[in-house]
Amino acid sequence: MNNTLTELRGVQSMTWKDNYQVWKDYKDLNPQIAAELAEMAGDDAALENAFTKPMAFGTAGMRGLIGPGIGQMNLYTVGSATEGLARFMDTLSDDDKQRGVAISFDSRYQSREFAHHAAQVLGAHNIPSYVFDDIRPTPELSFAVRHLHTYAGIMITASHNPKQYNGFKIYGPDGGQMPPVAADQITGYVRSIDNLFTVATVAEPKLRQKGLLHIVGEDLDEDYLAGVKAVSVNPKLIDEVGKDMKLIYTPLHGTGRVIGYRALKDAGYANFTMVKEQAIADPEFPTVEHPNPEFPEAFNMAIKLGKEQGADLLVATDPDADRLGAAVRMPNGDYTLMTGNQIASVLLNYILKAKQDANQLPADGLVVKSIVSTELATKIAEHYGVQMNNVLTGFKYIAEQIKLAEENHEHTFLFGFEESFGYLINPFVRDKDAIQSTILLAEVAADYKQQGLTLYDGIQQLYKEYGYFKEKTTAKEFGGVDGAEKMAAIMKSLRDNRPTAFAGVQVETVDDYQTQTATHADGTTEKLTLPESNVLKYWLADGTWIAVRPSGTEPKIKFYIGTNADTEAAATQKLTDFEQALNDWVQD
C-alpha cells in the first residue's frame, strides 16, 4: 500500500480505512500510540473520526482530541505542525532563523512530550528552541517570545477544553499569534507534508551538545512577574486595603498555580487562599467536568471556601491561564458570577478613571475589543474621550492593533478584551493574560471596598450611569466527521434566508464579514474594513445586535446577543425575547 497520506495535501483519494491501514502497518509506530490504536480496533466510528481528515490547521494552529490518527493530537500530527513552522523558518534570513522558537506547555496529557518533540523537530532544521522547564501560562509564552527575541513561539495547550483535548498554537515575533500572511504560509507547508512518519527529529542530548535546546524557567518568571506587578494603577490602595482583603484563587488544575500565587504575593495581597484541591496540576481535572471559568460549576469549590472565609472576591483561571472568571459576594452573603463583559467593563472603567484622576490619561488613548463584546465598554470609553476600535474575534487582532499603534505612534494602548473572559492591560504580553487581569481585578475590588462597596455594586453603578447592558452567548455543537459540512450548510442558509426582524424589531443593517459588506434595510451597501471572516452580525432598530459565527477552535456555531434598556428588568426581558426569536429562526 502507498504509504503517502495524500489527505494532508487535500486530495480525497484515500478512505479512512486506507489511512488507518497505513498507521496499523507502520512498523516503527510509537509504542503508546500503537497500543491506543489497538484499543480502537473494531470501533469504526472512532476510527472514521480519527482517520478521515487531517487536523484542521489555521491561523490559530490546531486543537483536537488526543489519540492516534491524522485527525487527532499525537506526536506525529504535532511533528507535522512543527515541521511546517520549521520549513517556513528555513526561508528566513539566517539571523531570523537563529533567533529560534520559545516553547511552553500546560498540564494536559502529553503536553510535555509534545513540547519536547517539537523542539526535536526544530533541531533537525538547526533551529534553536527555548523550552520551559515545567508548565507555564500562555501569556508567559507570549512574554518569552518578546523577552528572548525569538522569531516564533509554540504553546501546547487546549486552553479551557475538556481533558480529552490538546492543541498547538504558534506565535509570531511580536508575541502575538502568528500574523495571517505568515500563518497561511506555514499552513501551506504543513499541508504539503506527504508522510507524517518521515518528519525528522534529533535526540535531545545531541541538541543540548549543539546548543540547539535551552531550558528556561525562573529566569523568565522573575521578569514576567515584574511586568505583572507594574499593572497596578494605585499600589498605595493595595497597601491600605488590598493586603487585608479576603480573596480566593483557583487555577483549576492548570498553569496558574505556578505564577498566579506568586503574582498575588508580589502585588501585596497577603490575605488570599488558593483552593488546594484545584491547585494540583492534574490532567484529569478531577474536580470539574469543564475547566473553564465561564462555567458556574468551575466555582463550586471556590464558593464553598469563600463562604467559610467571608471572601470578598473569588477568581479562577483556566488551565493555560489566559482566561479569568470571577464571582463576587452579594449583600446576602451568596456569590454571583460576573460575565466576561462585566469584568471587562469594571476593569476598563477603573483604568480610565484612575488615570484621569491622576492626570495620566493620554489624549490618544486606545481601547480594543472584539465585535461580539459589550457596547457598555464603548460608552465608557466615549465618556473618557478614549477611542474604541472593534476587531474580529481572536486576540491576535487585538495584538495587531497594539502593534499598529506602536508603529504609527498614533495611539496609546490602554486595554483590550474579548467577551469570552480574555483581557490584556499592559502590552508587554500580546495575548490575553489572566495573571495580569487577576492582579488588577483584585485592585478594583479593593477600590470599591474602600468605598464600602463590592464589585457587584460597581457594575450596578455602571448600569445606572450608562444603561443596563445584557449579553448572552449560546452555541450549537456539530461533532463527527461531517460536523464542518453541517456548520457550513447552516451559515449558507443564514445568508440565503436573511431575516428582516427579530422579535418584531427591524433589522437595520447586516454585516457580512465573509463578503466584507454591510447591507442596510433600504438595500444600500457599504464596504466593511475588517478582514474577511465567516461572521454575520445583525444591527436592530432598538440598539440590539446579534452575531453568528462558527468557532475557530471547537466544532460549534456560536450565537451572540447584546441588548440594553433603561432598567435591568427591561434589558433582561429583551434578552429573553431575542434569544427565543433566534432559536426559532435557526430551527426554521
UniProtKB/TrEMBL annotation:
GO biological process per UniProt: glucose metabolic process; purine ribonucleoside salvage
GO MF terms, alphabetically ordered: magnesium ion binding; phosphoglucomutase activity; phosphopentomutase activity
Entry-linked Pfam families: PGM_PMM_I, PGM_PMM_II, PGM_PMM_III, PGM_PMM_IV
Cofactor: Mg(2+)
Domain Alpha-D-phosphohexomutase alpha/beta/alpha: 55-194, 240-327, 340-466
E.C. numbers: 5.4.2.2
Catalytically driven reaction(s): alpha-D-glucose 1-phosphate = alpha-D-glucose 6-phosphate
Pathway annotation from the record: Glycolipid metabolism; diglucosyl-diacylglycerol biosynthesis; Lipid metabolism
Alphabetical UniProt keywords: Carbohydrate metabolism, Glucose metabolism, Isomerase, Magnesium, Metal-binding, Phosphoprotein
Alpha-D-phosphohexomutase C-terminal domain mapped to chain residues: 516-572
Gene3D superfamilies in the cross-refs: Alpha-D-Glucose-1,6-Bisphosphate, subunit A, domain 3, Alpha-D-phosphohexomutase, C-terminal domain
Origin: domain of life: Bacteria
Similarity-based family: Belongs to the phosphohexose mutase family.
Annotated PANTHER family: PHOSPHOGLUCOMUTASE 2B-RELATED, PHOSPHOMANNOMUTASE 45A
Protein name: Phosphoglucomutase
Source organism of this protein record: Secundilactobacillus similis DSM 23365 = JCM 2765
